[in-house]
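Need Serine threonine kinase's 3D structure for a figure. Predict it.
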Amino acid sequence: MASFHPQGERHEEFIQFVRRELQPGIDGDGEKVEFICPTKTTKWWKKRGENRIARAINHNINARAATIEKAYLNIFSILVYSSKMYLIKDFISHGFQDQQLPLLDPEKFGKDLAMVRDMKDFCENQWMFCPVVFSSTMPMDKRTIPRRQILPIKDEKITTTKANHSKSVIRVVTLHSDCYDRDWSSSYLGSFEQNKRCFMVLEYATEGSLLELYRRDGPPATPEERRYFLYGMMGLIKAVDKIQNLGGGSRNQRTGFAHRDIKPSNILVFPGRQGLYSAGFTMKLADFDTATCEQPIDEALVSFHDNDGDKTYCAPEASRVYTYEEWTIRPVPLSSDIWSLGCVFSEALVWVAGRMAAVDKAASDRRTEIQTYHSLQIDASLGDCFHNTQTALRCVLESQQAAVKALKGPTNLSGTVCTLVKQKMLVPSPLGLHTQTSFENGASIQQISPATRNHDEIQGIPSFDRSLVLSTNGLDTSQAITDTPSQTRSPDYLHSIYTAPINNSWEPHRLYPSRDQQAPSSLYGTTIIEDVIHYRRIKAKKHRLPGYDQFRRRMGRRHFIFVIDDSDSMRGLKNEVLRTVEALIWLVKDIDLTCPEIRFTSKPSKRYPPAIAAMASRFYPMDKLASLLRHWENPDEADRECNMRYALDQIFNDASIVDPKKPTSVLIFTNGKWEGGPIEDRGVEGCITNVIGKMREKNISNTGFTFQFVSFGDDQDGLNRMNYLDDYALFGGSPGNRE
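Structure prediction for Serine threonine kinase:
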């Protein structure tokens, strides 16, 4: 009798416990079957003070209770339920533990007929004790599970996806609480295959996405509800920081990835414990199908490492305005996620303050500002984004301020969020803007004086500053003459592009998760002309040059024109100028849209190489390009003084030069000694003014066309002329409003 053996009594007690605790589940055939969760049997065996495992072991079995408890407790449960407890010694001797269940081969421990028969019974009974469990200690990722293994589904409903995926079925299920780790479950619990079907197990957000919450148009109504909503939204910053730093460690050694498609429809909403907007209200990121790591891909690969997400919420550096950019590889920095999140925060503030009517008005205001001042963005599907390819639109900042005012001023939490968005999130990225270059409209004057110049070095040209710096002992005498916005253009924000303060150390961790504007002028170190010449001489790969890869990505694809003052007064500086120009041509040749173009002020209408040859730039070697500089060899062709106005007029009168579909940068190498009378002569100033007018007529952005003077020598009249253009020329404006 069972009562004659204490072990038998223990076995019967356990069997009755199992039968009471059975729960419904579904197997791979869709059949309803019963199971018991291993956590329940474990709890039963380990009940304090009863020593249940030791009391259930037959004295003829050489097995220790501690061994069973550590690694064989679920197997022990199956054997007790099947009255085959004596097999525990075989599992222990073969090292087959709980984590290896289910067992599919009844001949696992030998082919003895009696053993095989008993093992078949074990295999049949094990399914009741081995449901699929989702836990951090037992990861479920792309496993293939047996058809008979039980899914711990309590109930389910079938829904459909909005996308046209006819073979996709969404089953919204409730799992038995004992079969998943609540602390671990976030969005993705695991994936597996069963009975030739693929499953992904995702956390279910009962409130749907943030976009769906907007459309239901029930924003938090009280200050307390708004506080819970904004706290939940702020948690998304932690989410971005987490995915960008999965491996931990210092901020400049990240091992994570960027989401690259942060928008309301990709943010899940989880209600609070006492109502929607109450304690526990949470938002979580979802939909990582566009996520990529920060490291750039090999440009030899036929693939892209770019932003494939929603263009409305994309960062300026991720936008593509020009057609040619669709074929260029331009990695987007991790900090682009912060811009996108800033757009979400900005829109959320507007919704909380004014419901969907305010959100729709804000979107309409963005479209109007872009149509009026930045119409090129419309063809690039950037017609309702939050930026002008460089900075946040003015109407975006105004809508935020209006929302804060409606929510009772800047001293509350909404004001704090607004300040965060304005100062740390919707700001130009330190790693580059839309065209990945820091050129500005107008002329940036750079002095290079022999008195302070190392023979083989030149000053950091602003065009390449914050990208690849060419140095002369730390001098920085440059200032930018920029096209100040007139009343016909979007005021205040069009030219508030990122500028780098001097003498600051670079702190990479500041880039994550904020898009802070503070960064040094020499972001990628210093490279001198001699370095460039040496790399070219030994035929080293350019990407080994310090800062070159970052420089290339920041610059993007554009056309470069090098204008050389070859007048008689420049002859003593010829070697320095040629060395500088040749080094720069070598640096930019691979990113030029066609082929770097060389012009001399003595014959400005003649370009080198000719236009037809430039179209075959791939077959135009660097040595041949360098040889074109030798056109400066004949002193008889050079003018005694440079007529810079005539030269620039001849160059810029070419209708194809200022082209909205062809970003172009012009660098002019001169000593400033030009004919034309006094320093304040309006000749060159008028030429620059005309170019600015053409840019306005063609609606070209700040970086769409740029020109820059690079000054050589120390002639005082030349320096004074350059300083006049830099500091005092009006370019068609008024004393109080320089163009």
